[in-house]
Amino acid sequence: MKDRNRRPKNGPAAPARARAERPAAKAQPARPPLAKKEQRPAPEAPARPLMRREGEKPAERVPVILETAGSDQYRLIDSGAGEKLEQYGPYRIVRPEAQALWQRSLPASVWDKADAVFTGDTDEDGMGRWKFPKAALGETWPMQLLGVDFHGRFTAFRHVGVFPEQLAHWRWMKEKVETAGRPVKVLNLFGYTGVASLVAASAGAEVTHVDASKKAIGWARENQALGRMEKLPIRWICEDAMKFIQREERRGSKYDIILTDPPKFGRGPNGEVWHLFDHLPLMLDICREILSPKAIGLVLTAYSIRASFYSIHELTRETMRGAGGTVESGELVIRESGEGRDAGRALSTSLFSRWIST
């Protein structure tokens, strides 16, 4: 292949005789400085065609609102005016929240007691910085949910390492694993900091955790060490989720529970590109193929997408044709506790759809 960045050779002047024999070349316009060559993303694995499913669609239950009311380690205290006030372990935190269209319920004196306030870009994945009104805080702090220890962390993307609304899914998964009466294999795709994986493993499951971010995998391992859970059967895999499940399908691997929490847009460790609306149908199709004959459930959560939960509900029902069971879909919400733990408004956080075998 020719090197497009190679410059013309500018050697010494040719002898007069050579000049007479060959007309001088026309002067070339100066080339602009060459931009740094962009690294091309790795070629994507060829997408297999979607399977045409036979049989009846699963029963349906819609709409389903899965509500998290908080715990001793987490509470949504108040929300409004585009922000939310939460309690994470020992700290009160203020972050942007586009869904909080209403006015705040609690007075400014309560909000002013926050230990940390995220400032900057208010987009879901926008970068910013943290302000600490009282005193400078460390980057991490210990927390515990469902008996699992992990680190909260002030990140530049406003997230703190855990999505408490997922407690509704985690409680369901924990109960299913503990009552299965047999070994259960769990696959956690886009597993982030590993809290769900640790919940599943501590309940007795054999877990495969997949995330494309080396930082997230490192954080997940830190969480495992914090809770002295190094001996739990968890495989930590840093890889593009689509590549991983396609390989698992070819290998004939099977799982009893699959959790998938894909972003709207993302990139794999080798430049793979993920677009939820383009790739989700194939992802679910492959997940169906790697569910075990005695599968317990398939859980999908979707954040920050412009769609109704009916979109992912119908996709999940079509994907699970002929499998029996029930598909239930709706929203994950967090209920405000108020300063006195009085029930307040429900804050919508995400859409979900899950197939359950019984």
From TrEMBL:
<feature type="domain" description="S-adenosylmethionine-dependent methyltransferase">
    <location>
        <begin position="139"/>
        <end position="269"/>
    </location>
</feature>
<keyword id="KW-0489">Methyltransferase</keyword>
<dbReference type="InterPro" id="IPR013780">
    <property type="entry name" value="Glyco_hydro_b"/>
</dbReference>
<protein>
    <submittedName>
        <fullName>23S rRNA (Cytosine1962-C5)-methyltransferase</fullName>
        <ecNumber>2.1.1.191</ecNumber>
    </submittedName>
</protein>
<dbReference type="GO" id="GO:0008168">
    <property type="term" value="F:methyltransferase activity"/>
</dbReference>
<keyword id="KW-0808">Transferase</keyword>
<feature type="region of interest" description="Disordered">
    <location>
        <begin position="1"/>
        <end position="62"/>
    </location>
</feature>
<dbReference type="GO" id="GO:0032259">
    <property type="term" value="P:methylation"/>
</dbReference>
<feature type="compositionally biased region" description="Basic and acidic residues">
    <location>
        <begin position="51"/>
        <end position="60"/>
    </location>
</feature>
<dbReference type="InterPro" id="IPR029063">
    <property type="entry name" value="SAM-dependent_MTases_sf"/>
</dbReference>
<dbReference type="Pfam" id="PF10672">
    <property type="entry name" value="Methyltrans_SAM"/>
</dbReference>
<dbReference type="InterPro" id="IPR019614">
    <property type="entry name" value="SAM-dep_methyl-trfase"/>
</dbReference>
<keyword id="KW-0949">S-adenosyl-L-methionine</keyword>
